[in-house]
Structures are given as structure tokens and as C-alpha cells.
């Protein structure tokens, strides 16, 4: 059985969004050869600096284990021998013997190294997801682990462990730990939605200390090394809180902090009134104990910082772990930042959405299956993570055709908008009836009007660029909307393809809908395509029923499956020069062609070694040239209208292709989105264009 992730629909609707004039170049494009160009990632979740030799530091990664640098981040090497669980969320270094360090993993418990990371062994605390580690500075053989299963303590350097969760109640998800450096029997734990807990007996007993703490999901804690009664808490939704009485009372200290969710905190050990906060808006700095904050983000390309670490010997040097953006270093107290990622074992991102700026086509956007949007401004030569809600999976991307710096992302966590070319994102979910967004459609005449097809929420509409949404479901009896299509001539006419409800039509911009299913015997509609010359002719690709056609704007449908074997339609393409010629990509069936508007079909699979077709593209200048992206077989090309195919996979190391896009100004350049990132190919023998891609799930 194919993985669920491949059931992503490529809808080829029109040529308009990708066609423009001018000249553009691409980076790293092979001549008739695919070249992997990223984006690459390795989510950095934790950092630790050797207190005796601060040029030695360690980074814990989401998928790569532990990395070590001995030159202040200049170069990194993986140090994972014996580390059998590669997802590392916490690191701690023995302050007396820095060659001894501990790594907390997700699922594998705590690992220990006694030789600076060269070798690791499991300490015996297995299974729990470790989110925080702290070592007793006076007795380094005593260490504490905060897990999503409560608190644990070892007094034998990890030799054995004991659960110490008395008093935590139901708040067993511990995200952060700090220890009083003057009185190490006093500890503080930051929890998931339980606020802060305090222990004065080395963790044997805990009590909540949340007076004044109005946000109770704690991501980080920091303790003043000179005045340990002063603490700071980083929260979700409440910004930073400060206590000056050992946690008894808290007050918000957020002046100048423009984001309410803070992931990381770090205090300057030499000047404790100076502290830093890692947020979804970069790094902020306070020089007066949190009373005021200012952004210090020059050079910090990524928008979200999850971890911070300060050089204890030279506090003007600090490091920021930017999640998918890797590691940044500042040597001037945050005034400026430089990326220091050399050797961080980057892995290609699984890309399922691609978008090209129609005005500056060397600007590319890639939506990742496992979350976030990546951007390149040089045709894929370099990418940076542009954020977007952490790990929210991206279903679809849409660019405002009039203002390409404005783009939208439909995700499993709602809709997000960027008005600065992906530099920052904001959730635009006011009025959104469902957080699962499968399809986006922008009015080609009035781009501030857009529509979203959702899971269980029907269709929503915005007339102010996503500022607010209203459900427009009058007459729409199916709430799972997989596909949307707008009539290119009369944009107030639109169509919605739904799960179990068939096709619905509105002629008043979504004001009301009517089911248009006469003759549509399969009502799970995954794809819609409109004839670009005669918009009253449209096609519906279904899950289980094959292809249907209407020649009267959906007034009636006829199954057009004569000769069509296989009913899971993943892609439809209409010949832009001869709209009576169309192609269908079928899971398990390959490519089918009709030359009479769907009256009959013929399989055109000669040379097509994979019949799981995910994407189709037609050369608009020479429509007999076609491209097919497949799951498991890579990319195929036909120069005779599908009469025969040849694989064009030289250099394509990942053969599961889920997205295709073409540089509109240099149309010989093709991009393929795969489970191993984006690949680029310069097909010099042909000049091709790709119709607009619209996605539904």
C-alpha cells in the first residue's frame, strides 16, 4: 500500500500565474541532469558550551544526534558512536570534568559520554522523552532529568535513577530545569501547562509557585547566578515573567517584546542584568533585568530561535539554535549574527509544495511535509528556513499575483500569511471554521479576495487579504473540501470538489452553493480542471470513479472512462492549444490520453516504468512534449504526445516526485519537489512551460 502522504493532488488549471517576461538564472542546474539543491535541515534543539574550553561546544539535533565543534562553531562533526537514539533534546556538561557529558533523547532516555562525545552508553534511564538535564554544581555525580513522564534523579552519575515527582500532580511534562548555584538542593521545574514547581529538598518534594504567572506552559527557565532568588520564565502566550523572591511571586516583563511566545532565555554570567530571549521573532535583549527589550536580529535570517547559549569566559559571544535554521553566532553581544553550520549533517527536506515568484522567478518557496516554508532567492542555490509555526505541515502555497511579496500557506494548523516575502508569518485565522486547510484559491482580478477549502469546515472567504474569514457554506452540504477552482473569465463563479458530497458551484462568489452532481456517480472529488478556452467545460477527477466531464458549467456530468483503467485520479492536464486533448494521471494506472474531450481514453505507458503518477506537465509551445512525475519512478518525458516515454532521472536520487514547477522566464529549467528536497534540471533540448499547479489533499 502506498503511504498516505502521496495522496496529494496536482491540479493543472491555467497558464497565467507562472507566465511573465524577462531573463532569470538558476543555481546549480545540471545540463539534462538533476542536481539536488536542498533545502536542507537539521533541527537544533539544544546547545551546551564546555565551561573550561568555551571554544568546544555541542549541539543536539532533532534527527542527527550530537554534533561537536572545537573551534567555536567554525566546524562541526557528528559524535554519535553508541548513541542509538538520534533525537536529542537536552545536553549537560559536568562542570568539574567537562569531558563527561549527558544527552537526553526522545525515547531512549539519557546517554553518557566520558570522552567528550567520542563514545556514548545508555545510563539505564530508558524510554522517557527527556526535555531537560541539570547537574548539581557542588556534586556533579548528582544530576536531574526532566521528562514527559515526570522528574528523575541520579546520584551516581547516571548509574541508576529514581523517580522524584511527588507534588507535581498531573503535571508530569517537564520542559525546563534550573538549579540554585548557591543552594543546589533548591530546584525549579517548568512544566507543560502546570507553570513552575519548586523543590527545596533535591527534588524529593515539589510545590507549585505560580502566583502572578498567568501563562502556565513553560518553555525555559533562567536563574540569576549572582542573585539566585531572581528567576525568569519563558512562556507560551505570556512572554517573559520575572520573580525576585525565589518564585513566590511573578510579574510579566515584556516591554518591547513584540512576541508573546518565548522559547529560550540566557543570562550574561558577568552582567546578570543583561539577558537574552529566543522567540518566534528572533532574539531580544534586555540590559536592565527584563524591564525593557529590543530586537537584536541583524544577520539572523531565520525568524524562530529555540535555544540560546553564552560563552562563560567571553559573554559577548553567544550562540542561537534556530531550529531548522541551524546555529548562529554573535561575537558582539547580539549586535550581529553569522550562521555557523558547516558540518551539521544537513538532511534534505521532504518537499510537497513549490511556488515561484511570478515577477522574480529566481525566488522560490518550498513547503515541507514535516513543517515550515523554505525560501531561496537564487534559484535554489541557497535556502533559508523562513519559519512558519514550527512543525506545522504545509499543504499548499499561494502567491498574490499582483503583489508577489504576499503569500499564503494552507496548513494542518490554519492559514498563515507573509507580506514580506516569507521574512515573517502571521496566523490569519480570524473566523476560520477549521484548522485543516487543503486548498487555496485567489481571485485573479481582485487578489484581496481569496477562498480556502478546509477539512470539516467547508469553504471560507476573505475579502481583505486574509484579515478575517467568513464561512460561505449556504447550500454546501459537504464540509470536507479537497479542491477549489475559479472561472478565469467570471471569477464570481467557483467550484468546490468535496469528499462524499461531489461538486458544488457558486455564481455569486460563494454567497450560496448548489450541488451539481447530475450524472456524477462518484462523489469523492479530488481534482477539478477548467478548460482554459471554454470555461463552461470542466473535468472532475474522483477517488474511485475515474474522470467526469461537464460541458454546461456543471449542469450535468458524464463519466468519461471509456478505456480508463484505474479510478484514483491524481492529476488532470488539458492541452492549452487543443483543449479536446487531455491527460489523466492515475495511481496504479499510469497516464491516459483522450483526443476527443474525454470521449475515450487510451493508456500511454510505453516506457513508463512507474504507473503511480502524481504530476503532469504539458509544454504549451510544443504540446506533444509532456512530463510526468511519479511515485517511485522519478520523472518521465515524452516528445510524441505520450506515445512513448523516457525516464529523465540522471542525478535524481529520490524517485518519489510530488511537485513540479518551471522557471517562467527560463522555461528550460525544471524543479522537482521530492522526499529528498528540491532538484533542478536544465532541459536544453526543449523550451517548456508548466501550467499553474493547484493542490488539494
Structure description:
The protein is elongated. Mean pLDDT is 87; it is low at 1-28 and 686-697. Strand 40 (414-418) and strand 41 (426-427) form a beta hairpin. By secondary structure, it is mostly beta strands. The protein contains no helices and 65 strands. The strands form 16 sheets. Strands 57-56-55-54-1-65 form a six-stranded mixed β-sheet, with no helix packed on it. Strands 2, 3, 62, 63 and 64 form a five-stranded mixed β-sheet that branches. Strands 5-6-7-8 form a four-stranded antiparallel β-sheet, with no helix packed on it.
Question: How would you briefly describe this protein structure?
Answer:
This protein is mostly beta strands and 697 residues long.
Mean pLDDT over the full residue set: 87
Low confidence ranges: 1-28, 686-697
Structural class: mainly beta
Strand runs, count: 65
Helix content: under 10%
If helices are DSSP runs of H or I spanning 4 or more residues, what is the number of helices? 0
Measured between the Cα atoms of the first and last residue, the distance is: 18 Å
The value of Rg in angstroms is: 28 Å
What percent of residues are in strands? 35-45%
The major beta sheet can be summarized as: 6 strands, mixed
| Overall geometric form | elongated
Please give the order of strands in the largest beta sheet: 57-56-55-54-1-65
Q: Key features?
A:
697 residues, mainly beta, six-stranded mixed beta sheet, five-stranded mixed beta sheet, 0% helix, disordered N terminus
What are the SSEs and their pairings?
Elements: E1 9-12, E2 30-31, E3 35-38, E4 40-41, E5 44-49, E6 57-61, E7 65-69, E8 77-78, E9 88-93, E10 101-105, E11 110-113, E12 121-122, E13 130-135, E14 143-147, E15 150-154, E16 162-163, E17 174-179, E18 187-191, E19 196-199, E20 207-208, E21 218-223, E22 231-235, E23 240-243, E24 251-252, E25 262-267, E26 275-279, E27 282-286, E28 294-295, E29 307-310, E30 318-321, E31 327-330, E32 338-339, E33 347-348, E34 351-356, E35 364-368, E36 373-376, E37 384-385, E38 394-399, E39 407-411, E40 414-418, E41 426-427, E42 437-442, E43 450-454, E44 459-462, E45 470-471, E46 481-486, E47 494-498, E48 502-506, E49 514-515, E50 525-530, E51 538-542, E52 547-550, E53 558-559, E54 569-574, E55 582-586, E56 590-594, E57 602-603, E58 613-618, E59 626-630, E60 634-638, E61 646-647, E62 657-662, E63 669-674, E64 677-682, E65 693-696
Parallel strand pairs: 1-54, 2-64
Antiparallel strand pairs: 1-65, 3-64, 4-33, 5-6, 6-7, 7-8, 9-10, 10-11, 11-12, 13-14, 14-15, 15-16, 17-18, 18-19, 19-20, 21-22, 22-23, 23-24, 25-26, 26-27, 27-28, 29-30, 30-31, 31-32, 34-35, 35-36, 36-37, 38-39, 39-40, 40-41, 42-43, 43-44, 44-45, 46-47, 47-48, 48-49, 50-51, 51-52, 52-53, 54-55, ...
Amino acid at each position: 500500500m502506498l503511504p498516505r502522504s502521496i495522496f496529494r493532488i496536482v491540479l493543472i488549471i491555467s497558464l497565467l500565474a507562472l507566465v511573465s517576461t524577462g531573463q532569470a538564472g538558476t543555481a546549480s542546474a545540471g545540463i539534462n541532469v538533476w542536481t539536488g539543491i536542498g533545502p536542507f535541515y537539521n533541527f537544533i534543539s539544544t546547545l551546551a558550551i564546555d565551561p573550561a574550553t568555551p571554544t568546544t561546544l555541542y549541539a543536539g539535533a532533532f534527527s542527527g544526534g550530537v554534533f561537536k565543534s572545537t573551534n567555536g562553531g567554525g566546524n562541526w562533526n557528528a559524535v554519535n558512536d553508541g548513541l542509538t537514539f538520534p533525537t536529542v533534546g537536552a545536553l549537560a556538561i559536568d562542570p568539574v570534568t567537562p569531558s563527561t557529558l549527558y544527552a537526553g533523547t526522545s525515547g531512549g532516555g539519557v546517554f553518557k559520554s566520558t570522552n567528550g562525545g567520542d563514545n556514548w552508553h545508555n545510563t539505564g534511564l530508558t524510554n522517557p522523552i527527556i526535555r531537560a538535564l541539570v547537574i548539581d554544581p557542588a556534586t556533579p555525580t548528582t544530576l536531574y532529568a526532566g521528562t514527559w513522564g515526570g522528574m528523575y534523579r541520579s546520584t551516581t552519575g547516571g548509574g541508576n535513577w529514581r523517580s522524584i515527582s511527588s507534588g507535581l500532580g498531573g503535571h508530569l511534562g517537564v520542559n525546563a530545569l534550573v538549579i540554585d548555584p548557591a543552594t543546589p538542593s533548591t530546584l525549579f521545574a517548568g512544566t507543560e501547562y502546570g507553570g513552575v514547581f519548586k523543590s527545596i529538598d533535591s527534588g524529593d518534594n515539589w510545590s507549585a509557585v505560580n502566583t502572578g504567572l498567568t501563562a502556565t506552559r513553560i518553555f525555559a527557565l533562567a536563574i540569576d547566578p549572582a542573585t539566585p532568588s531572581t528567576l525568569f520564565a519563558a512562556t507560551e502566550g505570556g512572554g517573559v515573567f520575572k520573580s525576585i523572591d525565589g518564585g513566590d511571586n511573578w510579574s510579566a516583563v515584556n516591554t518591547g517584546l513584540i512576541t508573546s511566545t518565548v522559547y529560550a532565555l540566557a543570562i550574561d554570567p558577568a552582567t546578570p542584568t543583561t539577558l537574552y530571549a529566543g522567540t518566534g521573532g528572533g532574539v531580544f535583549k534586555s540590559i536592565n533585568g527584563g524591564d525593557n527589550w529590543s530586537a537584536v536580529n541583524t544577520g539572523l535570517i531565520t525568524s524562530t530561535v529555540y535555544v540560546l547559549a553564552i560563552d562563560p569566559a567571553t559573554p559577548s559571544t553567544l550562540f542561537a539554535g534556530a531550529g531548522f535554521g541551524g546555529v548562529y553566532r554573535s561575537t558582539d553581544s547580539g549586535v550581529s549574527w553569522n550562521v555557523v553550520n558547516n558540518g551539521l549533517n544537513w538532511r534534505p527536506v521532504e518537499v510537497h509544495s513549490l511556488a515561484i515568484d511570478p515577477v522574480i522567478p529566481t525566488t522560490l518557496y518550498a513547503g515541507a511535509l514535516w513543517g515550515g516554508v523554505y525560501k531561496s532567492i537564487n534559484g535554489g542555490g541557497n535556502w533559508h528556513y523562513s519559519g512558519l509555526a514550527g512543525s506545522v505541515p504545509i499543504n499548499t502555497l499561494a502567491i498574490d499575483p499582483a503583489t508577489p511579496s504576499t503569500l499564503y500557506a494552507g496548513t494542518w494548523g490554519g492559514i498563515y500569511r507573509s507580506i514580506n516575502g516569507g521574512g515573517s508569518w502571521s496566523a490569519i485565522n480570524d473566523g476560520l471554521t477549521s484548522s485543516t486547510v487543503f486548498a487555496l484559491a485567489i481571485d485573479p482580478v481582485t487578489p484581496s479576495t481569496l477562498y480556502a477549502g478546509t477539512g470539516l469546515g467547508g469553504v471560507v472567504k476573505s475579502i481583505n487579504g486574509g484579515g478575517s474569514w467568513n464561512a460561505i457554506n449556504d447550500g454546501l452540504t459537504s464540509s470536507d473540501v479537497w479542491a477549489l477552482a475559479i472561472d478565469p473569465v467570471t471569477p464570481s463563479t467557483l467550484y468546490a470538489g468535496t469528499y462524499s458530497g461531489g461538486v458544488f458551484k457558486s455564481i455569486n462568489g460563494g454567497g450560496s452553493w448548489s450541488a451539481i452532481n447530475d450524472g456524477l456517480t462518484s462523489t469523492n472529488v479530488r481534482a477539478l480542471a477548467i478548460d482554459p478556452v471554454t470555461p463552461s467545460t470542466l473535468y472532475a477527477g474522483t477517488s474511485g470513479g475515474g474522470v467526469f466531464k461537464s460541458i454546461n458549467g456543471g449542469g450535468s456530468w458524464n463519466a468519461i472512462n471509456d478505456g480508463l483503467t484505474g479510478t484514483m485520479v491524481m492529476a488532470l492536464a488539458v492541452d492549452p492549444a487543443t483543449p479536446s486533448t487531455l491527460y489523466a494521471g492515475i495511481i496504479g494506472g499510469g497516464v491516459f490520453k483522450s483526443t476527443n474531450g474525454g470521449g475515450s481514453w487510451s493508456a500511454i505507458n510505453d516506457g513508463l516504468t512507474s504507473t503511480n503518477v502524481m504530476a503532469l506537465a504539458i509544454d504549451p509551445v510544443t504540446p506533444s512534449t509532456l512530463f510526468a512525475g511519479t511515485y517511485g519512478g522519478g520523472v518521465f518525458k515524452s516528445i510524441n504526445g505520450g506515445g512513448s516515454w523516457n525516464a529523465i532521472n540522471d542525478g535524481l536520487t529520490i524517485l518519489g516526485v510530488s511537485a513540479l514547477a518551471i522557471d517562467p522566464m527560463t522555461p528550460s529549467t525544471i524543479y522537482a519537489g521530492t522526499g529528498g528536497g528540491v532538484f533542478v534540471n536544465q532541459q536544453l533540448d526543449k523550451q517548456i512551460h508548466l501550467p499553474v499547479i493547484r493542490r488539494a489533499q
